[in-house]
Write a structure and sequence with these properties.
With 381 residues, the protein is α/β, with parallel strands linked by helices. It is 42% helix and 11% strand. The strands form two sheets. The protein has a six-stranded mixed sheet with strand order 7-6-5-8-9-10, sandwiched between helices. Strands 2-1-3-4 form a four-stranded parallel sheet, sandwiched between helices.
């Protein structure tokens, strides 16, 4: 801004014209404002990873860090909003009232089961993507890892016996994602702090856990670990023992994703079963399941086609794109790519945008997806 003429364009009276245009056609907000590349990172601080319920203000450093990752990896502008409201209905009202400013909303670190109802309420009432990263970011990367592990081992996802510990937001979303990949609900066994989730507990558990209740006499996860193909841990350190790993099927897939200490260390798991494939949430071990492989790129694709939601097809497209990048070459210690892999942005974002267009949720279809992919590949990470 160099002179009074520039000032008059940037503010009054110049801003009056785009305001009037948006009144006539609200979609022009994507043309005349920053809305189309702006995501709100929103929390109430009730379930901050590794820290618990620390409240809105104390969660601000985490949200600011998330905003940095959006910009660094996806070239997405974002702003953190810490909302001091624990009541889910009131939280939804506040977020909905702020939503016109943004092209998308990334929910973060909200306790279960509130996070489920909050996301559902916002997704059904708003016309912009609402994405709870603790759920779906984790699920997408887990799906990519499992897809490649089964490909490497020659196993079919539909035939896998899956044992999971933890029934929080990430665990439930991961299991739902595995169902989309073809896993069978009757082959999934889930445990929480009170033991195995079984039908005779239905009166005392929420509907998100209840969907995975098994008809079984067993009461503990260790009772059903025999011949399990997959262990999915999103619970606490020590939840998986060496004896449980020894019971598993040949070439077991162990996703011990508790942070900062996994359910079992890779050293202990491999000592019990040298044929195991191990994933953790830590950067100091191979096969780190890290949400940064997903959220910047799924939002990049959703924003660029002005999608009004992030649906299951877009999530599956992201998982498949991530898996495909790591499959060249595929190895036990290389099931998923490194977050700094420059191919992630063009590969994942373009497939997400394509899925949005194919499922009819894109306001602004991209006419040349190859040219779009090429333009993304020229962005620096």
């Amino acid at each position: 801004m160099r002179d009074a003429a520039d000032l008059s364009l940037a503010y009054s009276p110049g801003v009056a014209l785009p305001c009037q245009e948006i009144v006539s056609d609200p979609s022009k907000a994507y043309l005349y404002t920053a809305k189309g590349n702006l995501v709100a990172v929103i929390t109430n601080g009730t379930a901050v990873l590794g820290l618990g319920n620390i409240g809105a203000l104390a969660s601000k450093p985490v949200m600011e860090g998330k905003a940095v990752l959006f910009k660094q990896f996806g070239h997405v502008d974002s702003i953190d909003l810490e909302i001091d409201e624990a009541d889910p209905e009131r939280f939804v009202e506040i977020v909905a009232s702020l939503s016109p400013s943004f092209g998308g909303i990334n929910l973060e670190d909200i306790k279960a089961p509130d996070c489920f109802t909050i996301e559902q309420a916002l997704s059904s009432s708003l016309d912009i993507p609402v994405f709870h990263d603790d759920q779906h970011g984790s699920a997408i990367v887990v799906a990519a890892a499992l897809k490649n592990a089964t490909r490497l081992l020659g196993k079919e996802i539909a035939s896998l016996k899956i044992c999971a510990s933890g029934t929080g937001a990430a665990s439930i979303a991961c299991l739902q994602m595995l169902l989309l990949l073809g896993a069978k609900k009757e082959n999934i066994y889930v445990s929480d702090s009170k033991g195995l989730v079984v039908e005779d507990r239905l009166s005392s558990i929420d509907p998100w856990r209840a969907q995975f209740a098994q008809k079984a006499d067993a009461r503990h996860l260790s009772d059903v670990m025999s011949d399990a193909d997959v262990y999915l841990g999103l619970s606490v350190a020590g939840a998986l023992t060496q004896d449980m790993v020894r019971k598993m099927a040949s070439n077991p897939i162990v996703l011990a994703l508790s942070n900062p200490v996994p359910e079992i260390s890779p050293e202990l798991a491999l000592s019990a079963r040298p044929d195991a494939i191990i994933c953790t949430g830590r950067s100091d071990y191979p096969n780190q399941v890290n949400n940064v492989l997903c959220f910047p790129f799924i939002f990049r694709g959703a924003l660029d086609c002005a999608a009004f939601t992030i649906n299951n097809a877009m999530k599956l497209a992201a998982a498949n794109a991530i898996a495909e990048l790591a499959s060249k070459p595929l190895a036990r210690c290389q099931l998923i790519p490194n977050p700094f892999d420059a191919r992630l942005l063009p590969a994942v974002a373009s497939q997400v945008a394509l899925a949005a267009m194919e499922t009819g949720v894109a306001r602004k279809p991209i006419s040349d997806i190859d040219a779009y992919r090429k333009s993304l590949s020229q962005m620096k990470v």
